[in-house]
Amino acid sequence: MATEIYRDAWGIPHLRAGSAAELAHAQGLVTARDRAWQLEVERHRAQGTSASFLGESALSWDRFARRARLDDTARRCFADLERREPETARWVRAYVDGVNAGLADGTAPEFARTGLTPGRWEPWTPLGVWLATHILFAGFPAKLWREQVAAHLDADAIGLFATDGPGTSGSNGWLVSGERTVTGQAVIAGDPHRWIEDPGVYQQIHLSCPEFDVVGLAVPGVPGIAHFGHTGTVAWAITNAMADYQDLYRERLRRTGAGVEALGPDGVWRRAARHTETVEVAGEDPVEVEVIETGRGPVIIGGPEGLDGDPGDPSDVPVAISLRYPPRVTGDLGFGALLPLLRARRVADVDRAFDRWAEPVNVVQAADTEGDVLHRVAGRVPRRAAANSLRVVPAWQPGHEWQGCHVSPRAGLTDGVAVMANQRGPSGPLGVEFAPPHRADRIAALLAGRERWSAADMPALHTDTHLASASPLLDHLGALDDLTPEAAALRDRLLGWDRRMDAGSADAALYAAVRAAVVRRLAAHPAFAGLTTPPAYPEVLQPWLALVPRVGFALEHLLRAGELYGIDRPAAVRAAIEDVALRPPAGVWGDTHRLAPWRALEPERPYDEPGLSGDHDCVLCTSGVPGLTDRAARGPAARYVWDLARREDSRWVVPLGASGVPGSPHHRDQLPLWLAGDLVPVVTDWARLKKETDV
């Protein structure tokens, strides 16, 4: 049969072909037509060549990508895939062939603006895109932050700042089994929290061939549907497990006449791989990057001459820091799970597919029409010393080697429900820092409030704005006395606030203003002075090392700690509310809490930034950075409701639209629905779709 491309009313592609390979080709083709600019940006990021057209602002990422060996790791993993799973490798090649065919027709306006010509995708490029997208998911730079805290305060202070940091992505997800639904069949719902990008990080798509018929959210540049899918008889979804599976090693390096050597845990100096690469920078001179790899992994910070201001090393010997991450060690990125997921018919099939999952490490939920359910962790987490998970460890000392992998934990349901929201759940033994329990507790409480649920009920949970993490600050406010009349009135108003971060709420705006003022005062205290200027580490790692965001996201812990290095917290809260009482925000929360998507290239015609409801610890997780900005760059990158009773009753939405082409009618047409908490129907009836073309 000919490969057919259809569209629904929202421009979402529905593809039908005679085989899985033909379908992969069509998926690559339509993705390139819809999102040519996005695909090229991702290819260049994976290769470490994005500064060649984006300029100096992209140089830090390119340096990191080169030094971390992302493209080389993708090549290795694809070569391993060809050896172990040739059918999957051919399927990936078919997708790449489709991308190249689609890029040949690319007309995205950004190409003309930058002078960029679409380049050629290689068979391993999707693996590179996947790796570049997720290399920072496990938050290994948090270990650099802990080194800073231990060096300038003490090791006990590390726990005070423990929360999901500013660079970490999370998600909500919940499974309601058939015993708790009106249909007697399960419902799975949720929303992945990631950087909101334009074009979006998820692509709504429908893939159909004689082997399978699946709707779901694909990652542009990667074949299949990895994270969120519904085959008609089984559905699955994931959240970030917050597992720790990447290590940082402090290396001792020395130059020799033959190159560079690294000191190993056995006390022997061994030759490290070394070469130089040239990074082209638009409008600037090219930059040379020295790439070094030891027996632990690629060196991503420093070199044989060390780095000024590097903390934590007890000697005067120059050091560098290497990164060890599973795909670099094993040659497996987990792409062997992708085809089995598409072919899944039952929960057992999904379970077996996720046994082959590698990175990132996720919590998975699945349910099928037979009544089976699944709640497990999937991914590869190495076994090693506890110190590896906490801090940067010395490469020259024994005891920090990897010793195989953990068995993936599993969990059950409670009263017919399972909730995943990056809390310390089934993945607890595999991680160090997890999200506060507020989102998970709130979802569980809402689900407990009704005996039976339907798919149509789920948007009420997606959009819940209750902020439980406000309690510590409000408790401090409630204990204050002798305030000025203006501050006392503000305190009383906040104590009576319903704790909902609604866009139209003036009280939410007042609370956020007081919170920001407290964060800034704590961050400015002399006790934290040593944390205000991080070492000269690469810019791409700096979000994990900035003091104000760290204080902002850990405010609960800092306010509740028994003692905080001599900081008078009641005085800081008093000064903050007095400041805000003198200059209160004039409007509502949505006036400053606005959507600020990341774009590789700013549009020629600026878009309005709509006001948002929600906050970092709300179920409606739209994250600004308390104390720094209310603008939200992170939030629900999609919302989904998978109904196992009738797939046609499933719903989904993305923040902007199905098309990545500015000016397209489907570039931003889902935004009003996303803002309102509404969802788009999932259409699987081909008679209700409009045929676009045969390929």
From TrEMBL:
Taxonomic source organism: Streptomyces variegatus
Protein name stated in the entry: Penicillin amidase
UniProt cofactor note: Binds 1 Ca(2+) ion per dimer.
SUPFAM superfamilies in the cross-refs: N-terminal nucleophile aminohydrolases (Ntn hydrolases) (SSF56235)
Binding site for Ca(2+): D244, D247
Pfam families: Penicil_amidase
Similarity comment: Belongs to the peptidase S45 family.
UniProt-listed PANTHER family: ACYL-HOMOSERINE LACTONE ACYLASE QUIP, PEPTIDASE S45 PENICILLIN AMIDASE
InterPro entries per UniProt: Ntn_hydrolases_N, Pen/GL7ACA/AHL_acylase, Penicillin_amidase_A-knob, Penicillin_amidase_dom1, Penicillin_amidase_N_B-knob, S45
Keyword tags: Calcium, Hydrolase, Metal-binding, Zymogen
Organism superkingdom: Bacteria
BP GO annotations: antibiotic biosynthetic process
Active site, UniProt feature: S171 (nucleophile)
Cofactor(s), by name: Ca(2+)
Molecular functions per Gene Ontology: hydrolase activity, acting on carbon-nitrogen (but not peptide) bonds, in linear amides; metal ion binding
Keyword Calcium appears in the UniProt entry: yes
Keyword Hydrolase recorded: yes
